[in-house]
Amino acid sequence: MPVYKLLFLKDCFVKRNQGFNNNKVWISGATKTTEVKKISKSNNLMLWLAVVAIIVLGVAVTMYSDILGDSYSTYNTSLAVVVVLLAVVVARFTNQGRRFWAFFQASRLELAKVVWPTRKETMTISLMVIVVVIIFALIISLFGVIFENFIQYFLG
User: Fold this and answer.
1) 61 within domain boundaries
2) Which residues of 62-100 are buried (b: 16+ CB within 10 A; e: fewer)?
3) Would you say the pTM of this structure is higher than 0.90?
4) CA triplet 82, 86, 92: central angle to 5 degrees?
5) Which of 10, 57, 113, 117 could form a disulfide with 121 if both were Cys (CB 3.0 to 4.6 A apart)?
6) Does 9 reside within a domain?
7) How many structural domains are present in the chain?
8) pLDDT tens across 54-107, in order?
9) Would residue 155 count as lying in a domain?
10) Which stretches of the chain are DSSP H helices?
11) Listed residue (26, 32, 27) closest to 10, CA to CA
12) Strand 24-26 and strand 31-37: pairing?
């Protein structure tokens, strides 16, 4: 049976030197492999057909809930959520779902490596953006007033 291999950076920490508040950082370069086992084509096809059948059945029940009675029409949203979740769970076990799950786990690892800004940095940058937006709004308004007066001078 063929096996997919996905390479991503290994989670290894090292202490930062002075000036960085002794926080931990990630060292890149080391790799860790994760294997994604592949199922047979017939099983994969059956799982995809099950996903399609679940979705079609959910859509049919939602569309024809008026025929089934008022008690079913009140649960349309809940039924839609359950159908989507069930389809996602079944799709998770297909070859493509397994590869996506391995990719998702690797991306969570990469997300942990991001150096997030501190609250002070976030507030400072946000304040700077607000000030720049206000300044440009005033400049654009000033150009509008000048243009309006210029047009009124020549036309009237």
Assistant:
1) no
2) beebeeeeeeeeeeeeebeeebeebbeebbeebbebbee
3) no
4) 145
5) 117
6) no
7) 1
8) 999 988 888 877 676 666 666 787 888 899 999 999 999 999 999 888 888 888
9) yes
10) 41-63, 65-68, 70-73, 76-92, 95-112, 119-155
11) 32
12) unpaired
